[in-house]
Design goal:
The chain is an alpha+beta fold and about 400 residues long. About 30% of the residues lie in helices and about 25% in strands. The chain folds into two domains: about 150 residues, Adenine-n6-DNA-methyltransferase TaqI, Chain A, domain 2; about 200 residues, Adenine-n6-DNA-methyltransferase TaqI, Chain A, domain 2, CATH 3.90.220.20. The strands form nine sheets. A four-stranded antiparallel β-sheet has the order 3-11-7-9. Helix 6 packs antiparallel against helix 13. It starts with a strand and ends with a helix.
Length: about 400
């Protein structure tokens, strides 16, 4: 137990809670007719649409959970698999690679969940394994420290963060509707970019650009990230038509200067070059435009920097979807169709790699853009409703300091 400079007590996770690993179910334990209790696997925590396997036998009581159980996934893909979750889908049994967290009387469970999730970067940095699959040992997890204010203050912080989470959820819903609207208007005006029924001129992205390159991973990886500095975009920040700042990283000026080739300019396009394909939230081929100041940000090695030639770049300022919306729109059709010949997939792995230089972009006459997007369209109307991709959400650390 420690005290920091603001007199906020910190504790190790193992001092205030017990972590019980799940049962090592085997495929032979699964009931063929899906009878019994659902087996909670990591995929069932981070995606409620994923199917369950079922178990009809008996295991020790510590592996059974019900609504309200706090679970922590400690193995898998960094950025998607690790995290603390409340279980809310009835009686079930817990699979291995998931800890059931039994909290003591010194912690509010909701605050504890937020506190654990706020340390995920540190937890992942302590994990073992390759780039795509890691796990943290129980011993190292129990040694992770979190701030622990008095119990009433924990409850107050958790209540505020619950409101922030609800605001974030509603924002995501609005952005989904906004994306659907943009796609609909785009397809109505320009046609399907895969089949190109209007026979627009087609050019390779490399012929429309002055620069296409991969970003850089700084020497030392996440260890060189700082609390404040130059914005550093990673693949999780690049979504369909928007840059998400929820999990943004920062690098210092010296690191930024050493990666000058990937320093961003206003209206550069960022596109994810690796990730999952053909899933609900495919991470491969997402694209968004950087609208910040020149040289105020940088980008890592899993993201392409695409800088259009002047004749194409000037059009993207007024005609929002034209030059870069086509790439994510095609995810509806399936990336393997649009990027035929450009995606590499090994051994049926759900992850792929896309070569941006070979992407086809069709070019419509300027008057079509004006007719489709400059007539007081619904796109402008939605923008006026304040559906902005970046909202300021208070962090749990800020809330603790605020109390002081």
């Amino acid at each position: 137990m420690n005290t920091n400079k603001n007199q906020i007590k910190t504790v190790k996770l193992g001092e205030v809670a017990e972590f019980v690993n799940g049962y090592p179910f085997k495929p032979t334990d699964w009931h063929p007719d899906e009878q019994g209790l659902p087996i909670i696997r990591i995929q069932n925590l981070n995606n409620e649409t994923k199917p369950f396997n079922y178990f009809l036998g008996k295991v020790p009581g510590k592996y059974y959970v019900d609504d309200g159980a706090l679970l922590f996934s400690w193995s898998g893909t960094p950025g998607t698999s690790f995290g603390a979750f409340f279980w809310n889908r009835g009686p079930a049994v817990v699979n291995q690679h998931i800890f059931r967290v039994i909290w003591g009387d010194k912690v509010d469970p909701n605050y504890f969940r937020y506190a654990m999730n706020s340390t995920l970067d540190h937890i992942i940095s302590q994990a073992h394994g390759g780039v795509g699959l890691k796990h943290i040992t129980k011993g190292k997890l129990l040694d992770v420290e979190i701030p622990l204010p008095p119990l009433p203050e924990q409850k107050r912080i958790a209540e505020i963060l619950d409101l922030a989470d609800e605001a974030r959820r509603k924002r995501r819903e609005n952005l989904t509707l906004y994306d659907d609207l943009i796609r609909s208007l785009f397809l109505q005006t320009f046609g399907d970019p895969v089949s190109n029924p209007m026979a627009w001129e087609v050019k390779k992205l490399k012929d429309m650009s002055t620069k296409i390159l991969s970003g850089n991973t700084p020497l030392g990886g996440r260890k060189v990230y700082v609390d404040e500095g130059v914005t550093f975009f990673r693949s999780q920040n690049v979504w369909k038509n928007r840059l998400v700042m929820d999990d943004i990283a920062y690098i210092d000026g010296k690191t930024h200067s050493g990666m000058s080739k990937s320093s961003l300019k206003n209206k550069d396009i960022l596109m994810t070059k690796t990730g999952r394909i053909n899933t609900e939230n495919s991470s491969l081929g997402r694209a968004a435009m950087f609208t910040g100041e020149d040289d105020s940000a940088n980008v890592n090695g899993h993201v392409y920097l695409i800088r259009l030639k002047v004749e194409h770049n000037t059009r993207t300022d007024r005609h929002y979807p034209l030059a870069w919306e086509q790439i994510p729109v095609c995810e509806m059709k399936g990336l393997l169709v649009h990027f035929s010949g450009s995606i590499t997939v090994r051994d049926n792995n759900p992850f792929g790699f896309v070569s941006a230089r070979g992407v086809d972009i069709f070019i419509s006459p300027p008057q079509v853009d004006e007719e489709g997007f400059e007539d007081g369209s619904a796109v402008q109307g939605w923008a006026l409703k304040g559906l902005k991709p970046h909202s300021t959400i208070p962090s749990w650390k800020a809330l603790i300091i605020e109390h002081e």
